[in-house]
Fold:
Amino acid sequence: MIKTGEAMGLEAVTGGVFECRYDDHLTLIQADHSLFLLLGIENGCLPSGAPISFLDRICEEDRPIFLENIQYQLSRSRVFMSELHIISGDGQLRWIHICGELLKGDGEFPCLHCIFHDVTDARDRQERLAIESQIYDIILSQTQDIIFELDCLTRDIYYSPTFEKKFGYQIPVKGFPDSMFATDIIHEKDKLPPSELFPVHPGRPGPDAVRISFKAQERPLSLGQR
Structure:
């Protein structure tokens, strides 16, 4: 039997457990207090009489996708995972992640034992980061400057799209700066030991900024001072 938790505000609902019939309505059988709060059921238990359809609490646009998704997964195993919008008791749309298992029910239909987590805040952060990244890429595409970002631990680099537009090719992003000197990107006479050009090493003290100058290939058989 699923235990009912202590009362809490809707903003504190992060997850919970429920069971529903695997029928046309995903009729709720039992649930913990978290789901009751999320759905706006104040008395903390399933009301007698009219059954509660969990499917009706799912955003209408998500219903066919959710049903198709779990049907596909359950055709291959007894477990499933999915994310969907749920309509909370105050009418808000909340992103929840559900993982569940198909169990043998007492009656005509099997039941789904489900664990859910409210991932709305994480989803919102992802969307904001995606928008900010798109804006950042647009700004970089409009500038003539070429921006490099170096991960000092992995020695991976990110460079703005302006480089490829200006020079006409891509450069290695793994193992920087050694990877650049292992190619024909830099003029042979400018290929000094990377430690002399980039005197910055993870875990070692070094300058806050490094300014270097070398000839980089701009087009095949052409070298430009950069």
In short: DSSP finds six helices and nine strands in the chain. The radius of gyration is 28 Å. Helices lie at 33-39, 63-74, 120-142, 162-167, 178-181, 194-197.
